[in-house]
Amino acid sequence: MYSFDCVAILNEFFQTFKLLIAIALHEVRSMKAFLTLMMIMTTWSVAQSQPMNFFAAENGGTCQDDCSWIAAEGDITSDTPAAFRKYLIESFHYPYLHINSQGGDLSAGVELGRLFRENHLSIRVSRTVKNPDFKYLFMEDDGGVCVSACAYAFIGGEIRDADEGQIGIHQFSASLTNSGKEIVAVKKENGVETRTILSTAQAAAAYLIQYVNDMGVDSRFVALASATQAVYSLKKSEMDLFKVRWQPKEFSPWGIEPWGKGIIASSKTRDGKVGAYVYCYADKRPHFQITALGSQNELEQALESSQHFSVFGQDIDGTSVDVKTINGTVVLRMDLKAIDPKTIKSLDSIFVWDGTNNVSSYFAYKPIPLEGAADNISVALKNCSA
After folding, report:
1. I need a labelling partner for 163 at 20 to 30 A (CA). Which of 114, 140, 155, 281 fits?
2. What does the DSSP assignment read for 73-131?
C-alpha cells in the first residue's frame, strides 16, 4: 500500500529541484545547460504520472454486487471529466467505481465528483490490477490511495468507502492548487453548465465549501485541508466524523439517549433509518427492539412459521416476538433475560436470525456492532433496578 511518507519524500525532492534550478540559473551561463536541466525535470515528472484512465473490471466472483466495477486509475487532469463522460457513453456502466489517484487538477476533481453523484456511484479507494492467473479478470490490491484533488472527487460518491490512511488532503491556494492554473468552478443546473474563474483563495474556499455541503460532507473537511501544508492522511474516525466515508446502512457504535424519564442504549444506521435499542420498561426487565424492513402484516405472516432469533446470546422464539408499527416504522420487540454486560464483548454478534429467507429479507442490513455496547447497555440497564 502506498505510504504518505512517500509523498513527503516527493515534496522534498521537488524542493531540491527548485534549489538546483536556482543554482543553475546562477552558475550556468549557457542556455543549453539550463534547457538540459529543465528537460531532465520535465521528463522525470511526466514519467511519474499518467492521466486518469477508466476501464471496466470484474473479478469473476459470484457475489451479488461489487464483483464488477469501473476502475479509475491515474492523475486527474482538466480532461478527466470529459474522459469519464465519454466512458459512460461508450462502455459498461457499473454502479461501483474503484479509484486510485495521487490527485491533480482541483476544479476537475470537483467536476468529476459531481459526475459521480449524478450517476449514483458507490466509490471505494482501491487499486485495480490484472489478475495474473486469469487473462481477462482483475483484482484489487492494498495499494490504493486518493490524495488532494482525488479526495474531492471521492466525496461525490453516493456511498463511499476507504480505509484509514487512504484519503490524503492538504492546503490549497488559488495560485498553486490546480497545477498553477486558474481554478474554474463548474456547476450544472437544469441542463445549463456555468463556469466561473475563481481568482482568490477565499473564493476557491467558498466554492469548495459549497461543493462539500452539496455532497453531504461536513465543511470541517475543507477547514482541515486548508490548515494542512503537507499531505495529511485522514483517520477512520475523522472520515466518519466528516462523512467523507459514508456507509448509510452501516450501524454506528452504541450510545445512550434520553427516553421518557430514563435512558436507552441505541445503535443506528448512519442514515438514521434503522435502529437497535436496549431498554427497561416499568416491569424492570430488559427489552430489545430492532427496525424491520417491511410491512407489519408481511412480517407477522412470515413469523407464523417457526423462526428463531439470537439476541445477546439468548435464544428467542419467533412466535413470542411482538411486532409493532411506531410512527410508520415497523419494529420487533423481544423480552430478554438479564443481560450481563461483561459477556457482551465475547459475543460474535448481537442479533442473528435463524429462519427462512422470507424473514431474513426483513433484516438485510449490516451487522450491529459490538463497539460501545457493553458500557452503554450497562448504563441503560440501570433503569431495571431503579
Report:
1. 114
2. ESBB-TTHHHHHHHHHHHS---SEEEEEB--B-HHHHHHHHHHHHHTT-EEEE-EEEE-
* pLDDT digit string, tens, across residues 261-285: 789 999 999 988 899 999 987 788 8
Which contacts (CB < 8 Å, 24+ apart) does range 258-266 have? 262/380, 262/383, 262/386, 263/379, 263/380, 263/383, 264/380, 265/373, 265/376, 265/377, 265/379, 265/380, 265/381
Look up the pTM and report it: 0.71
Number of H helices and number of E strands within the chain?
12, 21
Grid coordinates belonging to 70: 469501473
The candidate with the shortest Cα–Cα distance to 164, out of 221, 88, 245, is 245
The grid coordinates listed for 58 are 470484474
Q: What are the φ/ψ torsions at residue 359 (nearest 5 degrees)?
A: -95, -40
Give CA–CA dist 310/352, Å, rounded: 5
* C-alpha cell, 288: 430489545
Alpha-carbon 166 to chain mean position: 11
CA nearest neighbour of 312 among 223, 211, 381: 381
pLDDT digit string (tens) for 36-77? 333 322 222 333 469 999 998 888 876 656 788 999 999 999
Positive or negative: CA dihedral 18, 23, 24, 25:
positive
CB 351 within 8 A of CB 308: no
Nearest to 100 by CA among 139, 46, 45: 139
- Locus of grid cell 443481560: 339
Q: If residue 242 lies in a helix (H) or strand (E), which one and from where to where?
A: none
